[in-house]
Amino acid sequence: MDFRFDIIAEYTPFLVKGTLLTIGLSIAGILIGTVLGLLIGLGKLVNNKLAAFPFNLYITFFRGTPLFVQILLVHFGVVPLFMGETNAIIAAIIALSLNAAAYIAEIFRAGIQSIDRGQMEAARSLGMNQRQAMRYVILPQAFKRMIPPLGNEFIVLIKESSLAAVITAPEIMYWGRAMAGQYYKVWEPYLTAALIYLILTISLSFLLNRLERRLNTG
Amino acid sequence: MKKKKWLPMLSLMFVFALFLTACGSSSSQESSGEAETEEKEEKKTLRVVTDAAYAPMEYQDKGEVVGFDIDFVKAVAKEAGYEVKVDHVGWDPIFVEIEGERADLAVSSITINDERKQSYDFSVPYFQSTNKILTPEGSDIKSAEDLKGKKVAVQNGTTGQAAMDALLGKNHKDIKKFEDNNLAIMEMESGGAAAVVADNVVVEEYAKNNPDKKLTVIEDADFDSEFYGLLFPKGSDLPEEFNKAINSILDDGTYTEIYKKWFGTEPNIDVLKEQQ
Question: Angle at which helices B91-99 and A172-183 pack, to 10 degrees?
Fold first, then answer.
């Protein structure tokens, strides 16, 4: 098997552009997903079952269907409905954010519920109201516990953004597939893509480790 | 602390890469060995791989791979004295399977060209095809030239893509490359592309099956004719036997019968013969 570095060199400018788009898609997915996820997670915690129902439904749907299907549905169904035409990058951002939000909502809920009930009772008996107790006692502790699973979710998000290749968002895998399509070679594009994803995820876990350590000592 | 952590991680990556390459080569050797012994025992069943997402050439009907190509390859193999087992593996894997000699041949509307001939062996041409443009009715696209400046959806790795690469420039941002033609056509219907360029059979079949969508098929003389061939691993001794078999079914009317069954028209056998 001859490994052709020349075709990787030829596609380097495209792969660089693809990597930037992958990073962009992931950052957008993480930011929008986290904000949405926080809201949905809190919504699910509401005591009123009827009020919590739509949030439960949301999580059930987005956790219960494959991201691949969601991307196609958003691309061919949702985006054209609003814009009149398809837009792969917008569709990828929407699908990734909505999907991540469902998982992040569960992470927030689990984080908040993992704090011992006694903490809330203690805070309340000190004269804090429900909001103050949440804001100053529960959330700061819960946040620290949420970092590892959140980091996990962010790494998953980077990797799953590769599914956007199917709707022709020109990210890493799209160019990898274009390369494979042109030369009928599979090792060169896909091993290169694997290496780029590894570099991205390793960098992110490095950053997350640092953040975790800082919060532990601080 | 941090620095020490990087070293094992890096070495892990290398081991992983080595493992992958080792896996790739050793498994192909093993299975090609197996295939050889199998052949000796009973020279009967050949493994044929295809990408069954190209109606009516090859597609899946309730889980079964069917189509013109499938009927054709079965007829040729029968003529040559073989049985065939057709596996749907997808487009890219076809070339991996054939390169690794895990499959004996591939039939998947594969255009014969010089680039591919460097890595694989082909049979004589068995099918003539041209690229055509599919576009919504009333669109201002009348020829290939009109596609410039518009978004065009194609299937990745097909000659439709090659035709667009030639027209607009390689990897031009207006060329959207999809996994298969269905997605490309869907993109056009959703307004993301002005036209789809693909092989005539696919385009015509789609327009025929979806009369309510109001589509036009445009022919352009600038697109050259292409010829499909059966794909074999380099150095295989099957092509010789298959070429003979292809010629005899071209002559005895079996080919015409299959062609009529799928396309309802008479094939142009003389053009195919000229190409040999």
Answer: 50
Nearest CB to A80; choose among B177, B178, B191:
B191
Assess if residue B11 is contained within a domain.
Answer: no
Q: B57 lies in a domain?
A: yes
Q: Which residues of A touch B (CB under 8 A)?
A: 1, 14, 75-76, 80, 84-88, 166-168, 170, 174, 177-178, 180-182, 184, 186-187, 191, 198, 202
Q: Is the pLDDT of residue B7 over 80?
A: no
- pLDDT reported for residue A2: 72
Contact A85 B191 (CB under 8 A): yes
Closest-CA distance, A198 to chain B, in angstroms, reads 9
| CATH value at residue B217 | 3.40.190.10
Nearest neighbour of B177 by CB, restricted to A178, A187, A191: A178
CA atoms within 13 A on the CB side of A185: 22
| Alpha-carbon distance B92 to nearest alpha carbon in chain A (angstroms) | 7
Q: Tell me if B22 is assigned to some domain.
A: no
Which residue from B92, B173, B190 is facing A80, i.e. has the nearest CB? B190
Secondary structure percentages of chain A, helix, strand, coil, to 5: 85, 0, 15
**Contact call for A184 and B119, based on CB within 8 A:** yes
**B141-171 as b/e, with b when 16 or more CB fall inside 10 Å?**
beebebbeeebbbbbbbbbbbbbbbebbeeb
Could A86 and B24 be called an inter-chain contact, meaning their C-beta atoms sit closer than 8 Å? no
Q: Is B38 contained in some domain?
A: no
Rounded Cα distance, B177 and A94, in Å: 21
What per-residue confidence (pLDDT) applies to A217?
A: 62
The closest of A29, A109, A98 to A62, measured between CA atoms, is A98
What band does A107 get if pLDDT is binned at 50, 70 and 90?
Answer: very high
Contacts of B187 in chain A (CB under 8 A): 76, 86, 167-168
State CA B87 to chain mean position distance. 14
8 Å CB contact of B192 and A86: yes
Interval A160-215: pLDDT, tens: 999 999 898 999 999 998 888 777 678 889 999 999 999 999 999 999 999 888 88
Q: What is the pLDDT of residue B2?
A: 46
* B246–chain A nearest CA distance, Å: 26
Q: How far apart are CA A105 and CA A57, in angstroms?
A: 12
Neighbours of A54 (CB within 10 A): 12
Residue for token pair 């056009």 = B188
Pair (B196, B135) in one structural domain: yes
Quote the CATH superfamily of domain A5-217: MetI-like (1.10.3720.10)
Provide the number of structural domains found in chain B.
2
The count of other CB atoms within 10 Å of the CB of residue B66 is 17
Query: Do B164 and B86 sit in the same domain of this protein?
Result: no
Structure ipTM over 0.95, yes or no: no
